[in-house]
Fold this sequence. Notes:
- The structure holds three protein chains of three kinds.
- Chain A is an all-alpha fold.
- Chain A has helices at residues 6-27, 31-56, 59-87, 99-123, 131-148, 152-174, 179-207, 212-216.
- In chain A, helix 1 packs antiparallel against helix 2 (31-56).
- Chain A starts with 5 loop residues before the first helix and ends in a 6-residue tail after the last helix.
- Chain B is built from 23 helices and five strands.
- Chain B has helices at residues 8-28, 33-58, 83-106, 115-134, 138-156, 163-190, 199-204, 209-227, 236-242, 245-270, 280-299, 303-330, 334-369, 380-383, 385-398, 405-417, 428-458, 475-493, 495-508, 536-557, 583-593, 621-641, 649-667; strands spanning 64-72, 75-81, 562-565, 598-603, 615-620.
- In chain B, strands 1-2 form a two-stranded antiparallel ribbon.
- In chain B, helix 9 (236-242) crosses helix 12.
- Chain B is globular and about 100 Å long.
- Chains in contact: A-B, A-C, B-C.
- Strand 3 (562-565) of chain B pairs parallel with strand 1 of chain C.
Amino acid sequence: MGQMPFVMQLLDTLAALLLLLSFAMLAQRRIATLVELFALQGGVLCAATLLLAWRTGDDNLVLSAALTLGVKVLALPWLLRRMIRRLDVYWDTDPLLHIPGTMLVGVLIVVFSFGLAQPISALASTATRSAIGIAVAVILLAFLTMITRRKAMSQVIGFLSMENGLFFGAMSATYGMPMIVELGVALDVLVAMLVLGVFFFQIREQFDSLDLERLESHQGGR
Amino acid sequence: MTVALGAPLEQILALLCAWIAIGAVGLVRPASLKIAGRTLFPLGAVCGAAIAVVAAIHLAQPPERMILPIGLPALPMHLRLDALSATFLVLLGAASAGISLFGAGYFRVGQGTAPGLLCFEYHLFLASMGFVLLADDAYAFMVAWETMAVSSYFLVTSQHRIGEIRRAGYLYLLIAHLGALAILLCFGVLQGGSWRFTFDAMRAAHLSGGWAAAAFLLALAGFGAKAGLVPLHVWLPEAHPAAPSPVSALMSGVMLKIAIYGMLRVAFDLLHGLPGWWGLVPVALGLFSALYGIVFAAAQTDMKRLLAYSSIENVGILFTGLGLAMVFRGAAMPTVAALALVAVLYHALNHAFMKSLLFLGTGSVLHSTGERNLGRLGGLIHRMPWVAWLTLVGVLAIAGLPPLNGFVSEWLLLQAFLHAHEVPYPFVDMLLPLGAGMVALVGALAGYVMVKFYGVVFLGQPREPSLARAHDAGRTERAGLAWLALGCVALGLLPATIVPALGTVASSLGVGSLPAGGGPWWMLAPLGPQSISYAPPVFAGTVIAGVLLTMLVVRLTYRRPVRRAPPWTCGAGPLTGRTQDTAEGFGQPIRHFFTPWFAMRRSLPTPFDAAPRYSVEIGDRIWRALYEPLAGWVDRGAAICAVFQRGRISTYLLYALATLCLLLALVL
Amino acid sequence: MRPIDWLTQVLEVVAALAVAPLFQGWVNQCRAWLQNRRAPPLWQTYRAIRKLFHKDAVIATNASPLFRVAPYVVFATMLTAAAVIPSMGTRLPFSPAADAIALVGLFATARMFLALAAMDVGTPFGTLGARREMMVGFLAEPALLMVIFVAALISSTTALPAISERLATGPLVLSPSLAFTGVAFTMVLLAENGRLPIDNPATHLELTMIHEAMLLEYSARHLALMEFASALKLMNYACIGFALFVPWGTATSAAGPFALAAAIPALAVKLVVAGAALALIETASAKLRVFRAPEFLATAFLFAVLGMLVHLLLGA
C-alpha cells in the first residue's frame, strides 16, 4: 500500500469515528447520552465536510458544513435536550434485544454493508471511495437503533442519525448534494423535529408514557 | 520381536493382531481380574507404545500398501500406511498406552461385564480403530468402522443393569449407525461410476460438482455424527458419562479423532473437484459446535458430562481448522492451508492426551468417592494429591495456557486465521476473520469451564463428609496419568520438532507445504524464521526461572514464620462445605449471558417458604427442537406399520405368499 | 543481537519492576486530587509491600500447596510479560520466544492461577471472586486478542515489538481501525485491572468486589507478591497500549544507543499522561452492576471486531 496523503487518512479516521459513534448509540441506554452522541456525530460530520471542502476547494461544501453545524450540532440537540427535560425521559430502560445481541447484529450489518460497498468502492473514483461502505453501515445501524428501542424519543434520534449517514454517503460519493436539496433536507429535518415534538407531548397527554408498546395496544379493532 | 518382521505396515499389522490376541486371552478366564488387570492391560499398553514408535518412525516415508486375501471374493482387503494414517496411529498408540496402563489398575470391581470380557471388548475396540486407519478400500473401512462402533457400544453398556446406561448406549448405537449409513452412501458416491471400491479408484475418479458436494455433505454427516458435531452431538453427553472412565477417555480422546481422520481422508485425499468455499460449511458448523459445546459445559453439574461437552467444543475447533484448510486450498494459498491442516492435526494429538488425562482423572475421583456430581465433591487435592496435580496439567493444557500443548494448536489456528482476509471471495473475506474472534472467545470460555471443573472437584472444602475417606490412585493408575501428562508437556514444549513432521502430512496430501528450515529445535517458526515465532522451552524456562528467582529473593529477604490458622469468615462461624459456591453457581454468569441458548426449567424459592428449595434443570434446545419431533414421527410411522403385525402365523404366511406372487410376477 | 539490545531488555524488566508501584501510586494520587482528597504519597505501594514483608504469614489450615505457589507464578508471569512488551526498544532478544498471542496466554495463566488459588480455601468470598474474575476474563481475553489481531493485520506479524515498530514507522500516521481498537483496549484495561466501571480498587469487603475478594485469604509476603503483581499488570497493560497506539519515542531497530536514552524520558512522559487519563476516566465513571459487566466487555469485544472490519474495508 502506497503512501496515503495525510488528509485522506484523517478523512478515513473521521469516517471510522462516525461508525464508532453509531455503535456507541446502539449500545447506549441513556437517552440524554444518546443526544450528546448524536451531537458529536454531527460535529464529526461537519469536520469531515470541512476537510473535504478544503481538499477539493468546493465552496458549497463549506456552506453545507456550516449548515450541519447549525442544524445538527446546535439546533437539534438543543431541541432534543429541552424536550427530554420537559418530558422527563432520561432512560430507555430495556431495549427489545439485550445490548450485546444488538451489537452482534450490528456487526453483521457492518459486514453486509462493507461487502456490498466493496465493488462500488472499486469503481468509484472520488477521493473518499472507501467511505461509502461506512455511510451505508451508518444508515443501517441507525435503522437498527430505531428498531430495538421502545421509547419514541430514541427512535427519533435514530432517525436523525440515519440522515447523518445519508448525508455522509452523498458527500463521499459525489462531494455533496446540490445546495438546494441540502437546504431542503435540513429544513425538513428541523420541521420534522418540531412536528414530532408536538406529537410527543400529545402521546404523553394521551397515554402518560412515551413507551411505544402502549401505542401498539391501541390498534384499531382490538 | 516384531522388529524382525520387516516393513512397518507388517509390524503395525502384527501389533494390531497382538491386541486382538491379548483380548482373546482375556476370554479364556473371563472372571479372573488378576489376568486381565495385572497382565493383559499392561501388555496392551506396551503394544500401544510400540505402535506409536513404529508409526512415528514411518511418518516421513512414502506410502506402503498391502493386500490381504480375506473378505469378499472380488474385493480383498486393501491396507495402506501413509503419513496421515501414521499420524493418527501415533495418536492411537501413544494415548491408548496411557489409558491401558490406567485401566490395568482401574478395572477392579466385578460389577456389570466380567473383566475378561471387558478386556476383550476393549482390545477389539483398539484394534478396530487401528484397522480403520489402515483401511484402503471402502469394504475394509466399513468393517473396521462397524466393529469399532459395536465394540464401543458394549463397552459403554458394561454396567448394563442401570437403565439410564442402557438408554445412553442405545442412543449412541442409533446415531453411530445413522452416521455409518451416511459414510456408506458417501463411498457409494465417491466411486464415481467405476464400481470399484478401493480408495485408489476413488482418488482417480472425477466427480461432477453436484456429486462431489453430495459426497462431501454425506461424509460431513457421517463423520460428524461420530465426532459429535452439533446437531449430531446428542449421544456424546449421554454416552461418555455412562461408560467406565478409561472407555470414556478412549472414546473422547481417540475415537473422535478417528472420525476426524475419516473426514480428513475424504476431504483432502479421496474427494477431488470440490470448490474450496465448501470448506465454509465445516467452518460454520465447527465454530457453532465449539461455542455451543463450551457454553453447555459451563452449565453442567456432572463432571463427565462437563468433559463430554468440552469434547464437543474441541471437535468444533478441529472441524473449523479442517474447513479453513479447505478454503485456503481452494483459494490457492498452499502454505496457509498447510498451516491450518497442521493446526488440526496438532490439536487432534493434543486433545487425545489432555482429554484422556482429564477423563482418567475423573475416573480416579469416581473410583474413590463414588460421586460424579460436582455438587458433592470438593477439596480432593488433600486426599488425592497425585491425581489432583496430574489433572492440573490437563486442565491448564485444555484451557490453552502456554507453555502447555493446548496453546500451541490454538496459536497455529489463530495464525492461520490471520490470513483469512486474503481469500478471494466477497463477504467471506470479511466474515472468515471474525472466526478468529470466535476461537478466542471459545478459548477463554474453556478457561472458565476448567477453573470450574478443577476448583469444584479438587479445591475448597469437601462438600460431603464421606469425601474424607477418599484415597489416592494406585500405582499403575498414576503411571497412566503421568504418561498422559508427560505427553501434554512434551507436545507443549517441542512443537518445533513435531510441526515439521506434521507438515509432511500436509505435503503428502498435496495440500501445500510449510517452508523448510523453520529454526532450531526450540523455536517454532512454521512460516519461516523471519516470520512469526514462538519458543516454548525458552518461554517456559523464563517463567520457571522467574518463579524460582522470586522464591529465592523472598527466602533471602524474608525471615518471618508461617502460621496456620482457620480461614477468615467475617466472624460468621466456621466454614463448611455448604458455604462455598456450587457448581451451578459457578456457571451462573455464563447461563445468564447465554440465556436464550438454554432450555431452562428453574424453580425459585419464595422468602416465605418453610423449606426453601432451589433447582435448575438445563435442557438442550436442539434435543427438544429436532430430536423429540423426529422421535415422534418415527413412533407414529411405527404405529402405522404395526397394523400389519397381527401376531398370527397364518397372517405372516399370507404376507409371504403375497410377496412371492408379486416377485414372480415382476421377474417373469 | 547487539549488546545494546540485551541492555534494553534488562532495562525494560528492571524498569517495570521499579516503576510499576510508582505508576499505581501516581494513578491513586491523581484520583485523590480529582476527588478533592489529600493524596497518599507516590511510593505508597512500596510502603505497603515493605510493610507486608515484615509480617508473619498466616495461611488457612486447609490451604493446599497450590495456594502457596500461586503468588510466585502470578508474579513471574507478569514479569515475563514485561519482558515481551516493547516499552523502550523494539529489538528485544526475548521477543522471538513469545509473540502477542503468547502474551495474552500469559495473562490468562496468571488469571487462572489467581482464580484457582482463590477457590483453594473454599471461603464464600474466594469462590465468588474467582467466578467474577473468570466472568470478566472470558470476554476481556478475546477482546484483547482481537485488539492485537487488528494491529497484527496492519503490520502482518504477531510479534509485539515488530508490530510496534511498523506502526511507528509505517506509511500511515492515522489508522481509523485503531480508533475502534483504542476504545476497546481502554475498556479491557479498565476491566482487567479491576478499575472503576467494573471493580473498585479502593474498597475491601464490598459485596461487588472482584480482585480483592480473591486476595482475602492472603497475607504478608504472599499478599505483597500479589499486590506487586497487580501493579505490574497495570503497568504492562499501559505499555501494551503505548506499543499499539502511541509507538513513537521507543528505540527502533535502526536507531543507535542514544535512542534508548531518549526512550526512557518518552516512556516516563507517556506513563504520567496515561496515569492521569486513567484517573480521569475512573473519576468520571460510576461503578456498573456486576450483571452489567459482561455487557460492558461484550461491547469492548465487538468494538475490537469492528476495528478489524474497518481495517479490512479501508485497508488501514
